[in-house]
Write a structure and sequence with these properties.
Radius of gyration: 22 Å
Helix content: under 10%
CATH architecture of the largest domain: Roll
CATH class of the largest domain: Mainly Beta
Largest sheet: 6 strands, antiparallel
Number of strands: 16
Oligomer: single chain
Distance between the termini: 43 Å
Strand order of the largest sheet: 1-6-2-3-4-5
CATH topology of the largest domain: SH3 type barrels
Shape: elongated
């Protein structure tokens, strides 16, 4: 799960545990100063909040490298404030906090499968499929011209701009990363 590595072995993409936070190494370079010993300067992305920080490590300072597991989960239901998923591999139920799911909750409906990144038993992040086919639940009138769009509400609660010919009950393909209409299905 984790191992100690020397700071001279850092490379982009590694996941480090520092002060109980997880960081991905974005870049690192060995710095040789005219005065003083050489050191490693690294840019680290905090996986909890996506903020990038710079950190210096003494040469051969030990840092903890951790490995993350990727698993497929299927959304079941909302339980209190947490989202309940089924781990497809182990068939265990997994509870995921709302801050981990974030805006992706706009596309959750029963049966949607997603990729989850685990550190031990804790879900660290979730990634929806890029495209989902969802039904239009609510449609507020038509656009005012041939080249206009209108906003519809999908069965999951997400709002998406669509062409004026889309009606309530239609199933459409949506890009979950850009929140854009792709096509009617």
């Amino acid at each position: 799960m984790s191992k100690m590595v020397a700071s001279g072995q850092l490379s982009p993409g590694m996941i480090l545990s520092i002060d109980k936070n997880l960081f991905r190494v974005e870049s690192c370079v060995k710095v040789t100063a005219p005065k003083g010993p050489p050191f490693m300067k690294a840019k680290l992305r905090n996986l909890a909040n996506e903020k990038v920080v710079e950190r210096n490590f003494k040469m051969n300072q030990e840092v903890e490298e951790v490995s993350l597991d990727e698993r497929k989960l299927e959304y079941l239901y909302l339980e209190g404030k947490n989202y309940c998923f089924l781990d497809i591999g182990s068939l265990d139920q997994v509870s995921v906090a709302p801050d981990v799911v974030g805006d992706k909750a706009n596309y959750l409906k029963e049966g949607v499968e997603l990729e989850a990144i685990f550190y031990g038993d804790r879900v660290f992040s979730v990634e929806l499929p890029q495209f989902l086919e969802l039904m239009v639940a609510k449609c507020d009138g038509a656009g005012a011209g041939a080249n206009t769009t209108k906003v519809v509400v999908l069965e999951t609660g997400a709002s998406v701009e669509v062409p004026p010919f889309i009606e309530a009950g239609d199933v459409i393909k949506v890009d979950t990363r850009t929140n854009e209409y792709i096509q009617r299905v």
